Amino acid sequence: xxxxxxxxxxxxxxxxxxxxxxxxxxxxxxxxxxxxxxxxxxxxxxxxxxxxxxxxxxxxxxxxxxxxxxxxxxxxxxxxxxxxxxxxxxxxxxxxxxxxxxxxxxxxxxxxxxxxxxxxxxxx
Length: 124
Prior knowledge:
Layout: E1 11-16, E2 20-25, E3 30-34, H1 39-42, H2 46-50, E4 53-55, E5 60-63, E6 68-71, H3 72-77, H4 95-99, H5 110-123
Antiparallel strand pairs: 1-2, 2-3, 4-5, 5-6
C-alpha cells in the first residue's frame, strides 16, 4: 500500500506581531513576512489581527474584520498586497479631453471625402 503525503504547504496557525505575519506550517516549518506587506493588517487593531480563520484546508488565512486574505503561496513567493490607488472619486467624463489642446485640423471621414471628390469631378 502506498501512502502519498501532500507536498503542498499548509498553514496550521498564524500570529501577527507589530512587525511580522508568522505562519506555522504543517511539517514544522515556520515562515514570516513583514507586516508592511499587508496594509490592511498594518492598520488593524491587535484584536482585529487576532480574529482570523484558516481557509482552503490551510492554503491561506482570512481576517474577516479587515477583509484580508493571505495565501501560503503568496508568503512563500514574496507577493505583498498592493495598496489601492487614491480613494478620490474617478475623474468626470470628458476631463481628459478638457485638458488636451484642441485638434486644429479635423480630417473628414472617408465617405465624406468620396462625396466631396465626386462633387468636384461633376463640377469639372
